[in-house]
TrEMBL record:
One Pfam family here: CoA_trans
Family affiliation: Belongs to the 3-oxoacid CoA-transferase subunit A family.
Molecular function in Gene Ontology: transferase activity
SUPFAM superfamilies in the record: NagB/RpiA/CoA transferase-like (SSF100950)
Keywords carried by this UniProt record: Transferase
Highest taxon in the source lineage: Bacteria
Species in which this protein is naturally found: Streptomyces phaeochromogenes
Protein name: CoA transferase subunit A
Transmembrane segments: none
Length: 260
């Protein structure tokens, strides 16, 4: 039952070229930065990533993206990464944009063993009708377009069929975890982490604080260990190395008393 890996490098060592990955995080909040860095050092390429976004330039998944190590992204937000935009528009990167709630449910459904579900999100748009550019050609034409989705009407309202997502691996970050793989996330850093953890066939969790079984309140556990295969204990330096995507400081917080 002890799922602790010797290091982040050991935990990601068997991820092959072309693997699919579900990655937790929202912007830079809750991203498994240590595992991403270890995967960067490991060298796997042609990766197919499912994540809310692809990090930013020089941070998170943006590190892998910058070296052309990601071939496809399924996500819902891409607006903070200039290299992402460049690769997508030049035809180097395939991108499937998904409504954010639909992406969350596709990951949850995949982890719960549900192959597909109907949702009203996207009805009446290209999400339903198809034709969204997944990949551009070098000349700017559409090389690969999204297909039309099956639709049905329930209660007088149209819905489209979306498929659950499972991936070869999942990379997530938790505030606390035990050696059996039970995980607890911290506030907004939970975001897509529990859903990604469920969707991965092999889920690897980096944890800021590793404890023994029984130390976590069972009612506080967000992801049970059945979904987690490997645990990496972060060093104190790794646990506190967190970046802020957009720093906002109110005027009142900088206002002081000026004395002559």
């Amino acid at each position: 039952m002890n799922k602790v890996s010797a290091s982040a490098a050991a935990a990601v060592a068997d991820i092959p070229d072309g693997a699919s990955l579900a990655v937790g995080g929202f912007g830079l909040s809750g991203i498994p930065a240590t595992l991403i860095d270890a995967l960067h050092a490991q060298g796997a390429t042609g990766l197919k990533v499912v994540s809310n976004n692809c990090g930013i330039d020089g941070q998170g998944l943006g590190v892998l993206l910058a070296e052309g190590r990601i071939s496809r992204v399924t996500g819902s937000y891409v607006g903070e990464n200039k290299e992402f935009a460049r690769q997508y528009l030049s035809g180097e990167l395939e991108v499937e944009l998904v409504p954010q709630g639909t992406l969350a449910e596709r990951l949850r459904a995949g982890g719960a063993g549900i192959p597909a579900f109907y949702t009203p999100a996207g009805v009446g748009t290209q999400v339903a009708d198809g034709g969204l550019p997944w990949r551009y050609a070098a000349d700017g034409s559409i090389a690969v377009a999204s297909p039309a989705k099956e639709s049905r009407t329930f209660g007088g309202r149209d819905h489209i069929l979306e498929h659950g997502i499972t991936t070869d691996y999942a990379l997530v970050r938790a505030r606390r975890g035990d050696t059996n793989g039970n995980l607890v996330f911290n506030k907004a850093a939970a975001n897509f982490n529990p859903l990604a953890a469920m969707a991965g066939r092999v889920t690897i969790a980096e944890v800021e604080e590793l404890v023994e079984p029984g130390a976590l309140d069972p009612d506080a556990i967000h992801v049970p260990g059945i979904f987690v295969q490997r645990v990496v204990a972060l060093t104190p330096t790794q646990a506190t190395d967190k970046h802020i995507e957009h720093l906002r400081i109110s005027a009142s917080s900088t206002r002081g008393t000026v004395r002559a």
